[in-house]
Request: fold
Amino acid sequence: MDTAEPNHVSLEARLATVISPTLEGMGYELVRVAVLGRERLTVQVMADRADGSQITVADCEAISHALGAVLDVEDPIPGAWSLEVSSAGIDRPLTRAKDWNRYAGHLARAETTAPIDGRRRFSGIALGADDASARLRLEDGSEITLPLNAIRRAKLVLTDALIAATAAPARTN
Reply:
């Protein structure tokens, strides 16, 4: 598994394949793509700036225009759909090994597709990841290794420490 790419399945995987080159060409990275709804689908795209700086509303607008055009041409979505573009936010999803490594030391929650050690839901301190798995230190002090391809969803938990760590530096004049 390529640790630079998010973990996606089915329609979301096709969408990620279609939109990633455009995002990368614009200087962004795909964090997650999700398809929601039944009657009219909503494609949600979360992106980061490749340079690590904060994503702005103007960035989201530019991404939305570019991806809307790409999706109209490629037409991977049957029927009517809408597009939502956002930053990953502070309590962001952990979809790539680099996310697990960047936010090591922060509280995270993860859910797996199948039970690991008899459970599917885990909460603890992110300890990082490699190409195949992410690690968490659970509340009881034990550590668990979660295969990246078995993680259904994972995200950071909003804490004061996370807010402080992700705050934009104060501007100086």
User: Anything to note?
Assistant: Residues 10-87 form a domain with the GMP Synthetase; Chain A, domain 3 fold (CATH 3.30.300.70).
